[in-house]
Amino acid sequence: xxxxxxxxxxxxxxxxxxxxxxxxxxYRGPGAESDGLIEHFAERVRDYRAVVHVVDxxxxxxxxxxxxxxxxxxxxxxxxxxPAEWLAESVIExxxxxxxxxxxxxxxxxxTGTIVLDAGDGMGRRALTLVPDYHxxxxxxxxxxxxxxxxxTRLDPVRPLTWISGPSATSDIELNRVEGVxxxxxxxxIISI
Length: 193
Description:
It comes from Acrocarpospora corrugata. By secondary structure, this protein is α/β, with parallel strands linked by helices. It has a single domain, classed as NagB/RpiA/CoA transferase-like (Rossmann fold, 3-Layer(aba) Sandwich), CATH 3.40.50.10420. It has five helices and eleven strands, in the order ααβαββββαββαββββ. It has helices at residues 3-15, 37-47, 60-70, 126-130, 148-154; strands at residues 51-55, 76-77, 100-103, 107-109, 114-117, 134-140, 144-145, 162-164, 169-171, 177-179, 186-192. The strands form three sheets. The chain has a five-stranded parallel beta sheet with strand order 1-11-6-3-2, with helices on both faces. Strand 9 and strand 10 form a beta hairpin. The protein is elongated, with a radius of gyration of 22 Å. It starts with a helix and ends with a strand. 32% of the residues are buried. The model has no long low-confidence stretch (mean pLDDT 85).
């Protein structure tokens, strides 16, 4: 008899007369309650030190213009497929020289404050959102879902997915927070309702 067999035999003997216990598995799945999603998502994104604006759909272009003006972002990357009506003008530059990137998203998760990009229209390739120091993302209200299970039902698993939960940050062993190490130092989100 091996040591493993001996240990397992002792465990079986100790719990042999114990009744079976039903373990509740009340996991929240897709289609969970969706009241207050926008407010919940905005609150979670703010918790990550991101700047959040909730605006009417007709105000998205002005909100983008204001955000870029505040950052004095003159050189902006805009991925193919980004809605033209949201930008008065855009300049596409080499990634190493840009001030900002403006994207849409595939889905946004209220519970975690996470934005998911899938390299589709308006999102561009992954490097586009990792190189510039400032990322401005426009999220439509219909893209906000309650939790991760809901998000997974909307995503194509073969597409390259980038999950963003706030500005890029890491901490050293002494818990000193450093931002902008492996992505944008600043994340700003415009939620179009």
